[in-house]
């Protein structure tokens, strides 16, 4: 007769015994007892005497040792079924199997041969290791969901394939506040979920009022030799959480009870950095409620075609929350391009770029504009973060195109939806309102810059120089005219004005050697278009040149204008 594999029942119609192999695990560890057996049924209505079980063949007898047996003989009544067992102990790793049959000694009846199927003997694991992966946020918000404050990397320390896997059935955690005192879990969490990788293994909606929780896994975590798996704890923060902070602690190896998957025997456990393993402290904040914004115009009345980095609007942002409120993050801003009447125009007709800067750093910029939208939406590559009570200022800047069909522009922030502000913990959108307490220019929504008109770059001024220096002067003479400059703006009417702030001259003797003007002159100054002399506070010479300032404000020369300046 041939062997029949697995748990199948094989009956010989002309005989009186049927047998079935008792199911075994597919794996056992070295040193573990292996209960090999068969179920034998008397198919007759009359008894069969002296029925015994017997092992016909062992696949690899060197891997196991027979310790004891309960294999008869015994009598089976008509229709009775009995179990006949052989108890082996795993000695060496490797695959083996058993073939068995039953015999009735009194009548020489014999059953078919059945096989247990292949069983693999595995080495007992030497141990496991856990490493804390820091996934704890600095702060969370009451009512926030799907927070992952704890991730443990669980690793099998053995690498040989013939080593038994590790199994984790539960996790024990202690919950503490900032002072180290235990806090009941229900004062912080409304839901707790355990996941292995992306697979949820347990979820708890009824949170006990205990600071130490043992969380069973509905499906154990199995760690194969040489493998590692992430065990993550995900929580929902109670919207009415009484706790103001928390940390999670795995106190000792027994809190992560990894066992031999075959025997259930605990294995030695280590933790990277040692036990206890604890997360950083996580603060629990109230949700951010509101952010206030204000704006003021920075742009001058005119701007040149092709001009870079023109400051147009200053935008103030203020977090109005109370202590304990979550921080906020400004992530984007929408800017409208407008004409002098406040009507929308196409940004691509006006600008090469629109940027947002904080201090001297550009944190968001757009260089392409939709031909179908008058709104420029700018995502902040470096979002603006504000804690409660903090404020900051953003600058909206533009680079003007070299030419435009428009005569000028203004920029506007039309309403509160132009700002995208989020609670930094939850990502929820936070309301934006006008900051009436911070407004100086009275800008409320819509917040608009002043109108600025386009101009062409001013050409170089035309200059005519006339010497006024007399052939001789008497020491102590006052208001001695030395030289006259006549400046003319030769540009077209659309040209920008010229700003002329002063001139630097070399003061020399008759042979051209530079002299220190401060030793020759008590005062220096200038007379503009025949007006009074405007004296400087001091005589400044640098590098052999003496600086003559054209008043503190300088001279502004519009297109077509001429001005005469005499140095005295």
Task: Set down the secondary structure blueprint.
Layout: E1 3-4, E2 10-11, E3 17-21, E4 27-29, E5 33-42, E6 48-58, E7 64-70, E8 74-76, E9 81-90, E10 94-96, E11 98-104, E12 109-110, E13 113-115, E14 119-122, E15 128-133, E16 139-141, E17 147-156, E18 166-176, E19 189-196, E20 199-204, E21 212-223, E22 228-237, E23 245-250, E24 258-260, E25 269-271, E26 277-278, E27 282-285, E28 290-297, E29 302-304, E30 310-319, E31 328-338, E32 351-358, E33 361-366, E34 375-386, E35 391-400, E36 408-413, E37 419-423, E38 431-434, E39 447-448, E40 452-455, E41 462-467, E42 483-488, E43 498-500, E44 502-506, H1 517-520, E45 525-528, E46 533-535, E47 541-542, E48 545-549, E49 555-557, E50 562-567
What would you note in describing this structure?
The chain is mostly beta strands. The chain folds into 4 domains: 3-122, Immunoglobulins (Immunoglobulin-like, Sandwich); 128-285, Immunoglobulin-like; 290-455, Immunoglobulin-like, CATH 2.60.40; 462-567, no CATH class. Strands 16, 18, 21, 23, 24, 26 and 27 form a 7-stranded mixed beta sheet that branches. β2 and β3 form a beta hairpin. The relative contact order is 0.09. Residues 1-13 have low confidence and may be disordered.
